[in-house]
Structure prediction request, 121 residues.
Amino acid sequence: MVLGGVAVVLACAGVLLMVPWIRAEQAREDELDRRDRDVLAYEVPNGQDPTAVLAALASAGLPAVPSLRHGHRVVLIDEQGRRDAVVRRQARRVIAAAPLNALGDPAPPHAVVFLDEGLPN
Prediction:
């Protein structure tokens, strides 16, 4: 009985601690989605898990959030006032090496093209 009570208290405390973090992440995603400057947008190809791309970018120190634009899964990379060419080059390298999914399956090679660059030749 006591263990059940402790478990309930810990679960409630966990939820209370997670709510501000979730709200902050949602606010950051909304802010990046509204902003056009200092945001690099990458459309995740069909078959690849956006979570794998987000995890790869986070491990490289590039803050990014998922978004849905016109039915397409997009990852928005925050340039944080850094030079566009530097962020673009680093993000391109990281995304090209990102796995296909959370299991680490290798993604098929593909050209990393950002939405403002158009289609690859």
Q: What stands out?
A: Helices lie at 2-34, 50-59, 84-97. The mean pLDDT is 82.
